From TrEMBL:
GO terms for molecular function: S-adenosylmethionine-dependent methyltransferase activity. It comes from Aquatica leii. InterPro entries: Methyltranfer_dom, SAM-dependent_MTases_sf. This is Methyltransferase domain-containing protein. Residues 34-149 form the Methyltransferase domain. PANTHER family: TRANS-ACONITATE 2-METHYLTRANSFERASE (PTHR43861:SF1), TRANS-ACONITATE 2-METHYLTRANSFERASE-RELATED (PTHR43861). Pfam families: Methyltransf_31.
Length: 280
């Protein structure tokens, strides 16, 4: 997950990525052709999605685009590749204190395939509320549940790998075990001061051409592959791969697949947020 060029190459496999969500749901975003807007992408990774896919959808003038990511490597790559007067990428963990310059600053918030990394969802949405102007809009998607997170649990806890794992829940949705993830999530964002205009859970399936493709896909998503010592890396991935399901109806060795349950939502910041909700 810390390798920007590798990640950009891999992440669209199976169309579980952000492009698909943007193409199908950007129409919900309302634009004001007479006003310049400010935009943020939370968890912008290598920066290709916001730069190449999202911003071209804007027909209204854009003043400032900020991509934030907790990974220094991603931000460095994004600035070197796409940074200019309008586009700026910054290292910022969205769970941390909001910089003063960004309080009530953004007209639009976007985030794709990132919120499952955030453990404290309530704090996440209170922070997002703070950076948005009243009535500002947000569109996002993230993985709420997937078999991959169960695979992480079983592989990471093996005695040969466990010493290298400092957080057994890194990169995994806190809704993984929830019986009603959509309902639970909806309550969190409404309490954080948002009016939801569209929310749904969708299944996306990653189907890959070969086992090698699938291996690279999982490496690009793994929070720990790059932290494993070299002599363990190969087996670490093989232990993941041996748990990936195969579609036996497909008569081909390339019948590996993985399902991802995505939550996709479009919401607006409410004009008035109760003071109580803002305290944390
Ligand atoms: C799966 S990538 C998604 C990248 C891009 N949005 C896309 O759709 O291709 C998730 C990104 O979120 C970043 N991330 C994880 N936790 C974060 C946090 N607390 N604050 C900001 N970024 C975070 C990771 O470093 C990673 O680059």
């Amino acid at each position: 997950m810390n390798n920007p060029s590798f990640y950009s190459k891999q992440h669209q496999i199976g169309r579980v990525g952000s492009t698909d969500v943007i193409q199908r749901y950007f129409y919900l975003v309302k634009q004001n052709k007479r006003k310049e807007s400010t935009i943020i992408d939370i968890g912008s990774g290598p920066g290709n999605v916001i730069h190449d896919v999202l911003i071209p959808h804007f027909k209204s003038p854009v003043r400032k685009v900020v991509g934030i990511d907790v990974s220094e490597e991603m931000v460095k790559f994004a600035n070197a590749t796409y940074g200019n007067e309008k586009f700026n990428f910054e290292v910022w963990n969205i769970e941390n204190v909001v910089p003063k310059r960004y309080i009530s600053f953004f007209d639009y918030v976007f985030s794709f395939s990132t919120f499952h990394w955030i453990k404290d969802q309530r704090k996440l949405f209170l922070n997002i509320n703070r950076i948005m102007k009243p009535n500002a809009q947000m569109l996002f998607s993230f993985v709420a549940q997937t078999n991959l997170f169960d695979i992480y649990q079983s592989v990471w806890r093996r005695p040969e790998y466990a010493p290298y794992i400092d957080d057994f829940y890194a990169g995994q949705s806190c809704f993984q075990k929830s019986k009603e993830p959509l309902k639970e999530f909806q309550t969190i964002i409404e309490n954080a001061g948002f009016k939801i205009e569209m929310i749904k859970m969708e299944v996306n399936t990653a189907k890959n051409k070969s086992l090698v493709d699938f291996k690279e896909f999982l490496i690009s998503l793994s929070p720990y592959y790059h932290k494993m010592p070299d002599h363990l890396k190969e087996n670490f991935m093989l232990h993941h791969l041996e748990q990936v399901q195969r579609d036996t109806r497909v008569e081909s060795p390339n019948n590996y697949y993985m399902k991802f349950n995505y939550i996709i939502a479009y919401a607006k910041k409410k004009e008035i947020v109760e003071n109580k909700a803002m305290l944390y």
